[in-house]
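Q: My hope is that you can spare some time for a protein that puzzles me. Underneath my words sits a plain record pairing an amino acid chain with its backbone structure tokens. Those tokens are not coordinates but codes from a learned vocabulary of shapes. Thank you; the sequence and its tokens follow:
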Amino acid sequence: MKNRLKCYLKLIKELLAIVRVLEYNFFIKLKDNYMLKYISAKEAAEKWNISQRRVSVLCSENRINGAMMVGNMWIIPSNAEKPIDKRTVRYEKSKSVTLKPFVKWVGGKSQLVEQIEKMLPTDGEKVLTKYAEPMVGGGALFFSILSKYDFEELYISDINAELINAYQAVKNDVDNLVAKLNEMQMLFLPMDENGRKYFYYTVRERFNLTALTEETATEKAAQFIFLNKTCFNGLYRVNRKGQFNVPMGAYKNPTICDDENLRNIHEALKNVTIVCGDYSLSKSFVDKDTFVYIDPPYRPISETSGFTAYNTDVFDDGEQIRLAKFIDEINLSGAKIVLSNSDPKNVNEEDNFFDDLYKNYKISRVEASRAINSKGDKRGKINELLICN
């Protein structure tokens, strides 16, 4: 009995060895003496930059032409093309409309959008169904995501009540908002410089004196967008009393009302949850199926470069540390997380603040233009950080 069992085991080993040989060196003779080479699932996975398990799934779904099972292994024609992954395609909208941020925002991420979008899973291993941006600001990445991808649930928030009110007005009352912006645009553009200054500072004073209520929400949203489009560099800054105090900019023909874009955004925001509050409120939304992008006020890289007071609260190093702890918390959920910030090594190679704070994450340094500075010769290319899990 033992001898017979040994014979069986030996035969099985020999058969497995034959299968291994077939897996790597399998040829089928076709018509006209053409020889077609086959590769293993492992080789196909390496060739297409996906997992071996995913290749096996595609083979079992008959989505790779010519693939066949030999023993318990799949072999694939070497000239087979990688099939389009239906799960990845679920991200992409069949019909897309290009959406643009409706406000300018200091530290906007238009330069980094393409690099951040590349961090979305694309190999079919994990298709994410939710998107969260708890510090949305001007929403450069958010609007690109809305334009191109189909997430089932989206969440945006910001601690800036006036900014979130503007998002809410676009979502809930776009007709009245557009009418008010058109009226201001028609009045403002034909004016000379002195007339524009008087108009701008009148609107700014009215904006600061009017409390944000349900009745004033759309009016304040229109004022907010007008001031953003006509103030210096699109900067949002408040004094200790919480009053907007940015001077008028020098724009010849600013677009105060982009009717088409606002209406397109209105349609796209219908299924978006918009929250005014601290980023930590997003924790209940974030789970393993969520792509999270966080763009906090940047840590100043010099004594004169920091615009961290978008509200009356300053986002200092203590706040950066609190944010890092929050990142650790949501990382436990299995979410895909991307965070951006300034790179202190632009001015001090010994400054390891973020390298130490996010030592358990991947840190990439990417080049971007710094636009906010009153002196033209102080604007240029610097490194910024992209931090992900």
About this structure: The first strand starts at residue 26 and ends at 29. The chain has two domains: 2-83, 113-388. Residues 195 and 305 are 32 Å apart (CA to CA). The radius of gyration is 28 Å.
